[in-house]
Amino acid sequence: MNILLHICCANCAIYPLEVLRNQDFKVRGYFFNHNIHPYQEYQRRLEAVRGFADLRELEIDYRDEYRLEEFLAKVAADPQGRCNYCYLSRLEDAARAAAERGFEAFTTSLLYSRYQQHERIRELGEELAQRYGLRFHYDDFRSGWQQGIQASKAMGLYRQQYCGCIYSEKDRYHPRERS
């Protein structure tokens, strides 16, 4: 079965790609991440994905569009709800691309992260799959968390410290008030 793997970053794609290939999927990557801030971070992650693709012989379609203003306009009024828009916008773009390119299924490397809302991602993926006539492949890739970390270090990939958006960057680096 042909599957389109939305890739949020190289590190998070390592284990899912291995699992999908072991399940006999024919995998193609898809990079669209308009949420990443600042622009230098976006570029580092894009280059890491390109390097990873070469190392793992993975064909990837790149939607290399830095649309920070659009992302911020959608989440600025409700920063706490930002993840829902972030998931939906990227998954919908991947589902649309999968349908247009004749794929049978799609999934996302977001499902590798311990920090993402798996049930929400799964709900959105399944809704979009139905809308676009696809199958959403849910797999809890978190079981390979340590394996992915070790592999990314061995490959010398850039390892980011936050999910990508300006709000997660703040959460990572800004001192928190103590209660």
Number of helices: 7
What fraction of residues sit in β-strands?
5-15%
Helix residue percentage: 40-55%
What is the level 1 CATH name? Alpha Beta
Q: What's the main sheet like?
A: 5 strands, parallel
Using only CA atoms, what is the Rg? 16 Å
How many β-strand stretches? 5
Shape: globular
Element order, helices and strands? EHEHEHHEHEHH
Strand order of the largest sheet: 3-2-1-4-5
Number of domains: 1
Average residue-wise pLDDT: 92
Spell out the blueprint of helices and strands.
Blueprint: E1 2-6, H1 10-22, E2 26-31, H2 39-55, E3 60-62, H3 68-75, H4 82-100, E4 105-108, H5 118-132, E5 135-136, H6 145-155, H7 166-173
Parallel strand pairs: 1-2, 1-4, 2-3, 4-5
Helix pairs in contact: 1-6, 4-5
Outline the structure in words.
It catalyses: epoxyqueuosine(34) in tRNA + AH2 = queuosine(34) in tRNA + A + H2O. It comes from Geoalkalibacter ferrihydriticus DSM 17813. This is Epoxyqueuosine reductase QueH. Belongs to the QueH family. The protein is an alpha/beta fold. The chain has one domain: HUPs (Rossmann fold). It is built from 7 helices and 5 strands; from the N terminus they run βαβαβααβαβαα. It has helices at residues 10-22, 39-55, 68-75, 82-100, 118-132, 145-155, 166-173; strands at residues 2-6, 26-31, 60-62, 105-108, 135-136. The chain has a 5-stranded parallel sheet with strand order 3-2-1-4-5, sandwiched between helices. α5 links the parallel β4 and β5. It is globular and about 50 Å long. It starts with a strand and ends in a 6-residue tail after the last helix.
